Give the backbone structure.
Amino acid sequence: MSDTGYGDFEFERRFWVRDLPRELLDASPALIVQSYFLADEGYAIRVRVQASSVTGLVLTPALDELALLEAYADRIDLCAITVKGPMNEGTRYEAERELDVSVGLEMVRRGGARVAKTRHSVWLGEDGWVIDTFAGANAPLVVAEVERGGPVTDLTIPSFCVTELTSDPRFSNDALAGRPYGSWAPRYETELAADGPRFLQSLGHNHRQEPE
């Protein structure tokens, strides 16, 4: 939710990552598990629980979302329910309310399709980024995301961002809950090789960093 005069809207851009520099990853990322009670054409009702700091966690496709939730249930310290609307070139309606952690845990356990991921936060240039590494059925997906209090224009895009996902509805978390990335990852790699990377051109000038 934005507090800069835009009301219940979020402004973000998201990118597909293949090779992430390890030095960007802190040793204690957040663990997020979220359950979708509605996910249809960009409209979503989501309950998210989060452990703000976990260590020594190695994500694999075999480690599913519910197993992760139970393994770290006693570390969960944040919970919220969120209503979302469809994405429109980096802008999306989002209304969020914090919940009691014990209630949120039970809702995620009992609720709809789940997504689990670790989240690393890093400051790059003038922007704060989060890097999500997905677990379970969505492994091996890695997504880098930048969010601002207003439209994300004139963005410096790190070199590890291969292509932009902002306007690709397949990569929203609510879509991934119903159609996990792991089931179509090879097809996407083939598509990317054929079509090449794409970046939004409607939000100012993109500044692409070159690999070192």
About this structure: The mean pLDDT is 93. The first helix runs from residue 65 to 71. The domain at 10-208 is CATH 2.40.320.10 (Hypothetical Protein Pfu-838710-001).
